[in-house]
């Protein structure tokens, strides 16, 4: 049963903000950047060929395929619902109503490189810059900027560099993080202040990756190592930017740990033990859709998986102060100890994963 005191505290806290901070923000605008995890139809529009997300099993729970790489709604859809605004349309659908923001995410997107029929992060941000005058300065400053990107960079790197040295891995991750930093600063320069970033999953445990490796019983180590290193450096970047840039506010969702916990302790989270994705094609349904609602965790979860603010708190956070969240920022800074991650991967994930349930694409 929920603690009634916690509800009273929440109501009192938000009442305090509304009474004492006239610049408190109730964002009505959401901008989305990333890859197929957040794509609501851009790939379907830009591709010269029919894409998987335009036919079943995609969209099964909605009655039709919608260009989302899922059997239903995806994280940006849920977050828009929590914000009480319409679902955010793909930016390439020019006839859409963009009054509440735009979705620039597209399947196969990368931070580095330039794959065909997609948009890199830099190209997505450039498209935002080209269209920013569609929204007022106030709307851009109060908006939430949501990001999930980098998976394809590391999966491609691992495929082409099966045995990199520690220095080579770090150098590649640094290139990715440096590029992300540059794009966040472009958005900040256009008025953006509230940034929500979802870190990378343990990529070597994705059914599609295991399926491609030929051993569906075990996760592939290198992609997950790269993701863990990326996640550590991404959090460090956000902490640095919050200190460097006046008014820079962020929410960091630890997707890696959320997924790893569900893989290792699948029955605790009501998943059946197994090795297959929930739907799709291939030996473990690896090439297809999945549905899961990380949106709820991002919106209202506690600092175990998200900090220094969840999305609901980021929505209400005054634009002109960060003092109230400093203690929680210190706490979130401490969660990503890379040695601890590596130890957990050795003692839990790599040892137990063949018994676990994996359910992502």
UniProtKB/TrEMBL annotation:
Q: Where is the signal peptide?
A: 1-27
Question: What GO biological process terms are annotated to this protein in UniProt?
Answer: endoplasmic reticulum organization
* Domain of life of the source: Eukaryota
Q: Which GO terms describe its molecular function?
A: hydrolase activity, acting on ester bonds
Q: What are the UniProt keywords, alphabetically? A: Signal
Q: Quote the InterPro entries the UniProt record gives.
A: GDSL (IPR001087), GLIP1-5/GLL25 (IPR044552), SGNH_hydro_sf (IPR036514), SGNH_plant_lipase-like (IPR035669)
Concerning its family, UniProt says: Belongs to the 'GDSL' lipolytic enzyme family.
Q: What is this protein called?
A: BnaA06g01420D protein
Organism this protein belongs to: Brassica napus
